Amino acid sequence: MKRKYIYTQQMLARVFHFGTTYEDLFPKETVAGKLLASIGSAITKLDSHAGGQVSGYGAVRTSRTSRSAARKALQLKLELTERTARALKVDKFYIPRNRSDAALIATGEAFALIGESMKEELVEQGLPATFVDDLNAAVAELKHALVDTKTTLGKRMAAITEFNDILHAALDDLRRFDALVINTLRDKPGIMTEWKTARRIDRVPVAKKQPEPETADAATA
Asked: With CB atoms 3.0 to 4.6 Å apart as the test, which of 123, 150, 183, 185 could cross-link to 192 if both were Cys?
């Protein structure tokens, strides 16, 4: 999750704490009190969705790792089959230059189909007797990994979208609440200072550029 969203979420928490600290100035039945309650509800939801984003990121990384492993396993089986067929001077097995997941899956299905028709010759050449089943299993594994990756990625994107929607709604409530606070505290400068502090969003730190290494000439000079 981006730092600016984290800092905005922290600011909303401070705003809510400020409102509850001076709840006598913003009674629950007033517009200000209702806006404050809405902000408090949003904070609870944001905390939940923030956790969902973190766990979702971990799930996406795990699924991508599984996908990469499944892809590599299928590719190795395809290369083994192609190399064995080439030794028999059989040109029916060909791995296309396009090595996308979809292309590898289609190639694996084709190799399994052709391999079934000449299984005996290929096994005699050194392929395991289960090579057709192994190809089908590798294809199925990559298909499953693709679906899992898309599913986990979709869930994470949904969590991000919902988080952003809730955050924007809370900021809309905050803009209205801000105007009410200013009108309420115009004769209370001390509390107004507290409000301005709570309302401030921390700046996202900017990474400093690393100094360029000195050249030999510069070091000598």
From this structure: 185
